[in-house]
Write a structure and sequence with these properties.
Number of helices: 1
Strand order of the largest sheet: 1-3-5-8-11-14-17-20-23-25
Number of strands: 26
Helix content: under 10%
Shape: globular
Mean pLDDT: 88
Distance between the termini: 43 Å
Largest sheet: 10 strands, parallel
Amino acid sequence: MRTRLMILPLALGLALSASAYADDRTSIDKVNGSIHAEAGRAFGSLETVNGSIEIDANVQAGSAETVNGGIRIGDGAQVGELTTVNGGIHIGSKLRIGGDVTTVNGGILIDSGSTVSGGIETVNGAIGLISTDVSRGVRTVNGDITVGVGSHVHGGIHVEKPQMQMISFHKRDPRIVIGPNAQVDGALVFERPVTLYVHDSAKIGAVTGATVRRFSGATPPAAP
C-alpha cells in the first residue's frame, strides 16, 4: 500500500479555506477481505491485499487496487486507476476510467462505450476491448489482445519479449486481433512471435516483428 502523507496548513485561514473544498468521499483500505462499493454512494480509493473489489453501476470512485483478487465494475461507473496482481479485471459498458488498467496474472475485459485515460497492461492475461477508447496504448508479454469492433487505441500496441523464467515451451504464440472498424494509432511492436490478424476495415500504424494476416468476416480464422 502506498504511504500517504498529509501536510497540515501553516495558517488557520488556509485550513478553513481548504475545508470548503474537502473531498467527502469514503476511502476503504484493508488487508484481508473484499470491498463492495455500493450504488448511491461516492468513494475515494479502494485498496485491499487479499480480496476482490466490486464497484456497482454508476458509482463514482477513485483508484481500485488489490493484490490477490479480481476487480469487477458495473455499467456507467466513473473510476480512477485499476490495479491487481493475481486476478482479472472485468469492466462494464460506458465507463470513464481516469488512469491505467493493469494486472499481472489475469485478463482484462472492457465492454462497449468505455474510455480509458491511461494505458492497458498485462503480463499473463488476455486483453479484450469492445468499442473502447484507450489513450495510452496496450501492452502485454504473454497475453492475447483483441481490439474489438469500433475500438480506438492511441499509443500503439507493444508485446514484450518474455524473460527466460517466463518462457513456456507448451504455450502458443499470443494471438493479436484488430477487429472490424477498429483503429490503432502508433506503432505495433512485437518482440516475440505472435499471430496478427487485421480486419480489412481496420486502420493500424506501422508493424514491426509480425506479418499482418487480413480477414474480412466478423471474426478471424480459428486457431490451428
